[in-house]
């Protein structure tokens, strides 16, 4: 089943949700600010995306700039930062079976649905 990690306050995430709704396919919405992924889940997401953990971080968030910017962090520390501050997680993330994309731009979602 298709899954979207969604933040309704984000216009790109709302656009991603609309693409999935228009597709007519079944999908699950994960409100990741309320149901924060575990370290294990984030590692799995990062592996599916085929990226380094830092690529999943929203570097313009105030939390990142205040607490983490300019520090030499390990992948594990970056993942911990995202678990402790889920606003740092880039969105939306769409998963379909063993494929995943960050929906920025939203058109990337079509590649896996």
What does this structure look like?
The protein is an alpha+beta fold. 35% of the residues lie in helices and 16% in strands. It contains four helices and four strands. The protein has helices at residues 11-23, 39-49, 62-67, 75-84, and strands spanning 2-6, 27-31, 93-96, 99-102. The longest helix is centred in the first third of the chain and has 13 residues, at 11-23.
Brief descriptors of the model:
alpha+beta, 4-stranded mixed β-sheet, 4 helices, 4 strands, globular
State mean pLDDT (0 to 100 scale).
96
- Please indicate the percent range of residues in DSSP E strands (runs of 2 or more): 15-25%
Residue ranges: pLDDT <50 for 5 or more in a row? none
User: In terms of structural class, how would the helical and strand content be classed?
Assistant: alpha+beta
Helix content: 25-40%
Rg of Cα set? 14 Å
By DSSP (H or I, 4+ residues per run), the number of helices equals 4
In summary, what is this structure?
The protein is an alpha+beta fold and 113 residues long. The chain is built from 4 helices and 4 strands, in the order E-H-E-H-H-H-E-E.
Which SSEs are present, and which pair or pack?
Elements: E1 2-6, H1 11-23, E2 27-31, H2 39-49, H3 62-67, H4 75-84, E3 93-96, E4 99-102
